[in-house]
Structure formats: structure tokens, C-alpha cells
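Section 3.1 - Work completed
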Amino acid sequence: MRFQKLPLAISIPTLLIVMMMIPSLHGFISGDSHEGRSFFYAVLMGLFGLSFLGFSLQGTVFPMHRHAQLWSLISFFLGFPMLLAIPLYEVSGAGGFIDAYLDIVSTVTTTGLPVFAPGSLSETLVIWRVSLGWASGFLIWVFAWSIFAPLNLGGFEHLGARGEAMTRSQSARQTAGRLPAEKFWREAHRLGPVYLWITLVTALALLIVSGDPTYAILRAMATIATFGIEIPGHTGVGGMSGEVILAFVMLFALSRSTFSTVFARARKWRMTEDPELRVAAGLVLVAALVLIGQGARYVEGLGAGLELIWGAFFTSLSFLTTTGLASEFLPSGLMTLDPVEIILVALAMIGGGVATTAGGIKLLRVFILAGHSQAEVNRLTAPSQVISGQIASRSHDHHSAMLACVFLVLFILVLGATTLALTLTGSPVKEALYLTLATVTNTGPLLPTGGGTQTLVMALPTQAKMILAAAMVLGRLEVLALLALLNPDIYR
């Protein structure tokens, strides 16, 4: 009870620091004492500092203002990785401290940006990065429900249009007056079993089809967190059966209705009634058709054609959920084609569902904008039509459409500003554009597909790496949340 009442700036870093015992133990067991000692000393140093910080803050009354929670999230994603980057910098032996810091920010935001060269990290570091990404994915999930939901940010501002305002207001009244830490742990207790059971079942299923326990555990942890990093030495393990399991797990990143009933309707939930799943099904179908059409010239025979169909579906679903895993059944060279690159970039920009670990614009906003565009076209073609429905409902839909349009414009402005900033540091325009898309959408695997070659992030100047770190945090917290900090009303 005392631990749950501690400020989140102390309790959450404490858990992540204790998690560094995982790579420490693996380093000692595998025979690399340098890795084990580096992470063990980092654990001691982190717990030592946090303990004294906790003692110094005893009896302090912390503010419960809304802006304090947002500032805490920004400091968590930008400041805390500096401590986690110390053992990575000591063990990796490649690049500078800024490279280790950028890699940790990429892991904490579940972006998966390829900072280090493929295969250059040891198995201990791979296990540490996957474990950290898995824990960060859960934290992002809980942050959405405990911080963004009460503030009506991160897509929650549109949920009232779906007849869920009453349920949300009741939930807000139940948590009124509680400390932010208590709200966080309340949601963690609710979502933790779901997150853990999905990971365990996925790992067990992958173990059955692949027979590789290391791959099964790491890939399950990375997929549920939409953290699409490569696992060296385990590429392609599991075949089509493994990809089917991963595709099933990715469905949880398309809609909050797949795992939560807080905002669900009282009657039985149906897939055809969920707007996010409907939009996702249409996008995946269109993207898969494009990939099949582009790859048809590379395959011959019925078996190869069926593999192409499955590979197109899996890759489209993976990039829509901002996981970024490419199917092993796609023909070689298909990912370098311009139409395929455009489709994958568009899917990553749209992203997954509200209150999930996926990034991007979010499917609900796309659904609202599409519906509003259809209504405006109908009004232009038939200006004298009679529209049925309540006035309040129509006004709320118009307000949601305006918010979605504002977010889309801000998202485009952020893409342009980040691309321009990277070009000023010396990066070519195309390289800067792919770096921006990979970071702002939190889809790091977009980077290797850009132009068919992997951009070496370590070769970028320090200014560009700091811009990439800020872009990943901006994409994870969304620009509307940061824009809210500029509103004077939030400080009253």
C-alpha cells in the first residue's frame, strides 16, 4: 500500500531498475561476468539514488494538477532513459552514450528504431531490450487509461460520440479525489492479468510450433507491445503457424474492445459494430490487394500464390498495428518497390486503436473523418435533404470531427517540421522523411524498408539523434497532449 502511494516518478523507475536483474543474471549464467556486473552495479546505483530521493520526499504533499501528470510522462520518456542507457553503453562497446540513449528511448516508446547494426548486440542485450520494451508497452497501456482517459486525450476525446459518455463519467466519479499513483495502480491491477495471460499463451503457442523457447518468449513479449525488433539467430522460426499466432496477437492492438469492457455497450459486443475493427479490415484488405498485385509477377504456382496472399495479409496487419514485422513468405525485393513502401508508410501513419500500444493517427479518428467527409459530400450533392437524428448528437459528431481534423493537421505539421529539422542537420530529404515517419509513428522497422537499404542511425550527428528522440516521445504522447500543456486553463 505504501509503495502504491509513492509518486510515479519513484515507483515506476524502481520497477524498471529491478528488471535489470534479468540481463544481469543472464550475463552471469552465460559466462560473461562483465555484462552481469554492469547491470548489477546499475541496479545498485539506481536503487541507491531512488531510496535517498524517496527519503527526502517523505511528508511532501504532491500537487494533483492535470499538467503535472503530463510533465511526468515527458520526463519519464526523455529523462529516465539516461540511467537505463548507462549499462547498455558499458556493455555494447559500440557508438557513444548518445547512441545508447537513443536506443533506450526507442525501446521505452516501443518504436524499435534500429540504432545498432543487426547482430552487433549480444544475447543478453537483446533479452534486456525485449524485456524493457514489453514492460514499457504495458506502462503505455496503463498510462492511456489512468492519465489520458481522465484528461480526454489520446483519442478518448472521441469516445463520447459512440454513446460511452455516461460510462466514462461514472468511471471518472469513482476515481475522483484519488492520487495519480492510485489511479495508475488501479488500472494496472485491472489490465495486468490480461497483458500477462496474452503473453504467456502466445509464448506457449510459439514454443509448440517452433521448439525454440528463447524465440517464443522474446517474440511473444515484443509482439504484444507492438515492438517489432529483430531477434538475431531466430529469423523465420515457426513458419506460417508462428505468423498466424502473431497475427492473432496483433488484433489486440486494433481496438480496445478486444481486451476491455469498460467502455463496451451493455449488450453483447459484435465485431461488425466496432468502428475501429471495420476500418482496420478495410485497410488491411486494400493494402493486401496492392501487395498481392505487386508480388504476383514474382511467384509461380498455386502454393507460392497462397503464401503470397498470407504474407501480404500478415505484413499489412503488422504495419497497421505499428509492429513492423514483414512476413517471410513475401518475395525478395517486393518490400523495395515504391508502391509497397507507400502502402506500408500509410498503414503505419494510420496506426491502431485508441488505448492500445499502437501508435499513429488511430483508427477511430480515421473513421470519424471518413464519416464526416461522407456527410459533407452528401450535403453538397443534396443541400435540401432532411437529416434525421437528434441535434445534440449531430453537434457532438461535428465537434469530434473538428478535433480529429485538428489532430491530423498537427500531425502533418509535426512530420514536416521534423523532416525539415533533420535536413538541416545534413540528412538527405528522403532519408530524413523515412527517419521522421519511423519515429513519429513509433514504427522503427519502417526505416530498413526505406529505399531498400538500412539507414545507419549511428552515423547521424548528435543534433539529429536528439531530434529523433524527441520525435519518438512526441509520437508516443501525441501532439494534442503536449499542445494541452500550452493551454493556460490546464494550470488553473
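Second construct:
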Amino acid sequence: MENLKPVENDPDLAEILASLDAEIDLHPEKLKPLSSDLKARLDDLVYDVEFDPDQEILGDVDW
């Protein structure tokens, strides 16, 4: 993960994180811990997924 770009170099990511930060500040009561069942399900979903953060995304990306 040492090759990740700093947020300052990614204005879209910076905007998303700033929005998330503001939402957490306004409504901290909405935060809930991740249940062990959900964590296990997520782990199962991505167990064999290979991921290269430097690989270019092909096609349109919709947010």
C-alpha cells in the first residue's frame, strides 16, 4: 500500500472524504460497529479477490 497517492493529489477522493467527515461530525450517533457476522461475510466475498490499486479502471465510473 505504500504506492497509494496522497489524498491531496486526488480531488475527487478528498471531496468524498470531506463529505464523510462532515456527516460524521453532524451525526456521530449514526456510526455503528461492524458486527462479526458482517465482517465474516465481507471476508468471504473478497477472500480470493486480487486487487492492484495501480491498475487503470477501464470504462465509465459512476459515483
